[in-house]
Design brief:
The protein is an alpha+beta fold. Helix content is 24%, strand content 32%. It has helices spanning 19-25, 36-42, 103-108, 116-119, 130-139, and strands spanning 7-12, 27-30, 50-55, 61-68, 73-74, 87-102, 125-128. A hairpin with a 5-residue loop joins strand 3 (50-55) and strand 4.
C-alpha cells in the first residue's frame, strides 16, 4: 500500500531564485530556508510530493508545478553543530501553469479561505490540501 501524495507551496523571490533556474538545472537543492515553521514542514515532505511554485514580488503568483526529489536532509553548508537544526531538500521542475494564479485571485476564492499560505503569506514552505491543490489548478485553467 503506497503513501498518499502531499501538496506544498514553495515561495521564492524571482530576483534571488527564479523557478526558471529550477527548470534549467532539472534538480536543485532548496536551501536557505530559516523559518521555524517552514523547516518543520520541509521535514514532512516526501519524494514525489507536488509543489505549487510561487513567485513573490513583483508578480505574486503560482507560476508552475515542481516536485520533491528527496526527503529533507541536513544542510551541508552549515557548521556541524547546526546540522540538526537546518535542513534542505532536492526539488525538480515539472511544468509551467498555462496561466499564473495571482495571490489576489487566490484570496478571492472561497475554496482557499483557510489556505495556510494565505493566512501566513510570509511562509516560504506551507502545506496545501488536496482540495486547495485542485482549486489552484482550476484557477490556472486546467
Amino acid at each position: 500500500m503506497g503513501t498518499a501524495m502531499n501538496y506544498w507551496l514553495f515561495s521564492t523571490e524571482p530576483d534571488s531564485y527564479p523557478w526558471q533556474k529550477v527548470e534549467s538545472e532539472k534538480t536543485v537543492r532548496w536551501d536557505g530556508i530559516r523559518g521555524g515553521a517552514a523547516q518543520k514542514y520541509m521535514r514532512l515532505i516526501r519524494p514525489g510530493d507536488l509543489i505549487a511554485a510561487y513567485h513573490s514580488a513583483p508578480e505574486k503568483a503560482v507560476v508552475g508545478i515542481a516536485e520533491a526529489r528527496s526527503v529533507s536532509y541536513s544542510d551541508p553548508t552549515v557548521p556541524p553543530e547546526e546540522k540538526d537544526k537546518w535542513h534542505v531538500i532536492d526539488v525538480g521542475w515539472k511544468r509551467w501553469l498555462s496561466r499564473p494564479v495571482p495571490i489576489a485571485q487566490m484570496r478571492a476564492s472561497r475554496a482557499l479561505l483557510r489556505m495556510k499560505f494565505l493566512i501566513m503569506p510570509r511562509l516560504s514552505i506551507s502545506p496545501v490540501t488536496p482540495a486547495e491543490w485542485k482549486t489552484i489548478l482550476k484557477l490556472a485553467g486546467k
